[in-house]
Amino acid sequence: MNPDSLVDWFTAHNGTFDRAALTFAPIDNLGWGAFALRDLQQDHTLFSLPRDLTLSTRTSSLPPLIGEEDWKKHGLHVSWAGLILCLMWEAAQGESSKWSTYLASLPITFDTPMFWSLEDLEQLKGTAVLDKIGKEQAENDYANKVVPILKSRTDLFGTEHPDSRFSLEAYHVMGSRILSRSFQVEAQPRVDAHEGAEMDLDNSSPLPHGNDDTENIEEDVESDDDDGDDPANVAMVPMADMLNARYGCANAKLFDEDRDLRMVTTRSVRQGEQIWNTYGDLPNSELLRRYGHVDQVPLAEGGIGNPADIVEIRADLVMEVIVQNYPEWAGPRSAERVDWWLEEGGDDVFVVDSSNDVPEEISSFVRLLMMSAPEWEKTKRKSRLPKPKEDEAALSVTADVVRRRLAEYPTTIEDDEALLRAEQVPEKLIPFNLKHAIVVRLGEMRILRGLLRGVSARLESSRTPPQSGSASESRKRKADGTVTSGRAGRTAKR
């Protein structure tokens, strides 16, 4: 890539670029980065671009050529199939496309798991990455949405199929470009009561490629009025996608005005410092899936890692443990309660962070499944999810769930730490993909181990009988029928 050519193209299409403020330079194994050429103050505009220079289904030349009726008939208005096809189309037009120079600057190879071998993917077993790659769904969209329009509109796409410009491989490349570089750009900017017409456009929540992490995008687009779910709002933003990101380092963000987008510093930046955008401080599992890299920064508790790391625990795993511990609860009894849980808005995946606290949703779900029949009937009548409760039985189930979740990884914490230590010897360098997999699963396993320690400690405490004279003992019913209130010298007869 020639950044000077990109800047020239950018300014020739009505973008503004402060050449005295920043420049682009290569970074070892990380592509390019933006660096400050001088000290910059907060609120300094680095560059701006007109909204019509963004590339989306709203600005591409393809949708009008196909027509709205055919566009919707082939399902190109939902998920990412339409936008990916637009990128392939614009790239196929060569220099006659408005975005030819920009598209030529984008990467054609990626380190994301979408392109990993099956052997490498095995190293991600147990992590939150495997179920979210979306390769199968992306290929289904290509076969069921893109191929039919390619064949039906030979006047646009030619008679040769598969044309390399519109092949499945090209579809995956363009989809990965969108996943790693797109921003949410609405048709009209949202008006913020405190900031006028400006809207923060950081790409902390880019739509996923193929299928959503926890929801089905196609259902959302058809049933939800929120513009944030509309694939038409997903856009490639030239120049803005040149900035890298790292946990806690963001010093610039993209803002929206009526007609222009502008990248503005959010704090002062010293000469020579890298200018960082934000991806929303994501966990390493998401950074790897979307962008092909991981973050490792000093942790408050010592060592290095990503403070934003999380672990996902499936509700069906919790149910399996309960049924295993209490076989009599299997069958229609538990199935009815799970269905009710989901209908009432309960999640089917629980998120655990590094706080070592049991998520209230897990405790609530465990309590629901372990309720007596009368409690269950009462809960149904109230139509409210049960409040979390940590008694001995619930804590025991939670501990078993965490142990089962830890067993899903192919290695242990000690195994992976040994692998990383061994890498200090030059001849034992770890392959790139394996190292990323190790970093992701280490972060998750450490969270689970911390949670298990916390749960085990609370479980042990719940099993320890109170010492004579303790506050809890003093509140127990006395044999003579009196109950002490816990306050000195005061008793009450029943």
From TrEMBL:
Residues 195-234, 458-494 are annotated as: Disordered. The keyword Zinc does not apply. GO terms for biological process: methylation. Residues 462-472 have a biased composition (Polar residues). Residues 20-280 form the SET domain. SUPFAM superfamilies: RuBisCo LSMT C-terminal, substrate-binding domain, SET domain. Residues 213-230 have a biased composition (Acidic residues). Keywords: Methyltransferase, S-adenosyl-L-methionine, Transferase. It comes from the Eukaryota. One of its GO terms (cellular component) is nucleus. This is SET domain-containing protein.
